[in-house]
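Table S2 (continued). Query chain:
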Amino acid sequence: MLQRMRDGIQGWIAWIIIIAIIASLCLLGVNYYLHGQSGNSNAVAQVDDTVITQQQLTNAYNRARSQQVDLPANSAAEQQLRHDVLQKLVDQALTQNIAQANGFSISREQVDNLIAQIPAFQTNGQFSSDRFAAILSQLNYTPPQFMDEMRSGMLINQLEGGLAISSFALPSEIAGTIQMVKQTRDFSYTQIPVTQYLKKVTVTTDQAQQYYVAHQNDFLTPEKVQVNYLMLTGANVAAGIKPSAADLQQFYQTNISNYSQPAQWKIAHIVIRVDGNDPKAIAKELETIETAIKAGADFGSLAKKYSDDPLSARQGGVLPWVSAGTLPQAVQAAVMNLKVGEVSAPVKNATEDSYEIIKLLDLKKPTVTPFAQVKTAVQQAYIQQQTQQQLANAAQQLQDLTFQNPDSLQAAAQALNLKVQTSDWLLRNTPPTQGVFSNTNLFQAAFSDQLRSGTNSDVLYPDQTTAIVLRVKDYQAAQPIPFAQVQAKITQLLTEQASAQQAQAFADRLVKALQDGQTLAQLTAAYGVKWSGVSKADRHSQKVNSLILQTAFNVPRPAKGAISATNVTLPTQQIAVIAVTAVYDNSSKIAPLPAEQKIYQTQLQNYYSQFAQTELLNYYRRQADVKIYQQQMQADS
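Corresponding output:
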């Protein structure tokens, strides 16, 4: 799951989530805001007894899709992304099952305690439900979904951490790795320019013609379309809205709660969780606490001693300021009946399966901001509301008129006083970088089958304040480009291909000759090849092309007196032939420093840990009963 989050999000929110996955949420104070249900959907996959639902796949896909804005709609790439997301969900479920089968678990207390270290969900050092909800909303999560994923992530991290700390590297392996890394080599190389064979190649008209016929789809004019469109914008609608003073006063009174501060309470609580514990023991513990409170004991000290809510217990049971609607019903009822300084009897919190003893520390009475102080904000809110309503009504009228008159935009244009606008020619796979059709959804819609059938499009919404209907004005399908226009291009392509083949054949001949025992001098005499020699080069040498250097260290160690050879194609239209003549291990005289050994040890252990994780997952993947329900997948897409 951590990898999915890393792949799906960027920036400061990514850091929030990565930290949160590691740290997770607690249910102290926070649990008041986590009462929703994540919901059930039809299964798209099942891993043993673990079901992956359509809703889970949709949510995960939407998060991944939102990060790939250039991915064409209804494309093969989009379907591949959906498949990849499902595979990650399957692997996540499989890894979680592995962890549970091997005795790994995450307790509620672990989740509770770790939330205290996450500043991302806090305001002024205290948990903020608004901040929490806003961040999750941006990530398309509900709190229960997020909680489930974090618990799963912590469990998977526990398994991966166990594999990591159990991985080790032997001293001989560390020494061998250091020796290999510090190895140096003697080698020579020659570079064969592909261009030197260009003049030796002749491409006939028949050959070019055959290539043209075989690769007809490579020589097409681009499909293109020109569309007419009607566009409704929020800005145009807003410009015509002129509220009177009476309108604003009425809006203010109707929405008075938006300009009011509701009553708020500062409370402390002592939580005694039920969790299947003996009811008699719970009753006795509650009685002990009540007796101590009546005897004048400090509430904060009692919270630190008895409360099952670790985060608030450290603060003497104190919670952030809360307001009506944010507390469980029974808790809110108890708080509303308290005066400042009073302590409630134990309250049954059915939502969290616990009892709570609550002390009211402070109270803020509700206040209303006078109209004069918020007049500008009221006017903006009024215009925004009216704009949304009028735009929605106009968009519905636009939809109705263009549907009732599918072969024209004129009726809608006249009724709504809109101008029929015309796009430039749009080329398939080449969206414009500016203007209306730089929007990916609009650009894709312009090439849709619906428009090519001669009817109007549905109303499209490139953003929240714009509605557009499209209609094809002119369309030109992709057409074959005449052979005469591309013959020179094809001839050049075939010439370059043939030249590369001849260069590769010569390089292969040199390699075989070296492997058969011929010397560099003999090849120079036979073919006029010029060799560049490199002596005792290490893996980080700056004296030679990096690809040549890498290839020289990838060939096998040559036998004494022999040459180990290979060739590699360079990005500069050259083929390099590399001949390794000697390998030096440099293993005896200078012992590596302890710090250096530690670095290599850590790198090896990380490699072994990752290898173990992969192999363990592959093993259980072979053993697990994994079902993919393709029919539900298609329904989800």
